[in-house]
């Protein structure tokens, strides 16, 4: 489902964020990505979601070689992926419902079906009943749930999250992890990064450990 073959990412400043990485993640797997700040976690996730391109090597996602795709084909591949961004990307001038509706608006969904999907996604993350609330009124944990609802509303096959538990107290962080597990349990391929490995250990899942752009044991 996700396959990196000898992937290197060098930013224009010259930093080599990823060095000759190879790994694969099967359909339906739940995998964690660990590493300190600067290890290359965000870069790896951005290569999967198509926000950055590999300098060399190949990145395969759902059968597409992202390094060979033309820009116009990228949105098509992105429809299979849900992303929870590190900086949230919540629109604070729109209410909860409209924030979650956004990806479906972009795809051009039928309005009634879209509204049903938005409520289903909000229900999954425990925010049903807060559709009209403005995001500024939500707690940190609720804002993170909003981001997760928005990431899954188009029913992606792959869900990736960049440090979704950062800035949350441990109890809230564990809640968020349980939420990701619930999507894994219905067949979604899940990849989550965190710098706190203790959050991952209880799950008995594969942990990819990055250090200075390379895997460690
Ligand atoms: P992590 O998510 O593990 O903190 P990142 O992938 O954000 O790691 O960063 C890996 C390395 O790449 C760091 O040295 C960082 O400074 C560098 N880097 C990240 N994004 C950029 C960018 N847009 N331009 C230049 N260097 C970057
Ligand atoms: P419905 O089928 O009415 O949309 P579900 O209860 O099956 O409702 O799912 C509720 C929400 O959970 C969906 O809108 C979606 O956000 C998420 N979801 C459920 N199953 C999947 C899946 N296989 N892939 C991605 N997201 C899913």
TrEMBL record:
Domain of life: Bacteria
Topology in the lipid bilayer: Peripheral membrane protein
GO biological process: cell division
Keywords: ATP-binding, Cell cycle, Cell division, Cell membrane, Membrane, Nucleotide-binding
Keyword Protein biosynthesis: no
GO molecular function list: ATP binding
Domain ABC transporter: 2-217
The keyword Phosphoprotein appears for this protein: no
Gene3D superfamilies xrefs: P-loop containing nucleotide triphosphate hydrolases
Localisation: Cell inner membrane; Cell membrane
Primary localization class, coarse: membrane
Pfam families: ABC_tran
Role description: Part of the ABC transporter FtsEX involved in cellular division. Important for assembly or stability of the septal ring.
PANTHER family: CELL DIVISION ATP-BINDING PROTEIN FTSE, IMPORT ATP-BINDING PROTEIN
Family classification: Belongs to the ABC transporter superfamily.
Summary of subunit composition and partner proteins: Homodimer. Forms a membrane-associated complex with FtsX.
Protein name in UniProt: Cell division ATP-binding protein FtsE
Classification lineage: Bacteria, Pseudomonadati, Pseudomonadota, Betaproteobacteria, Neisseriales
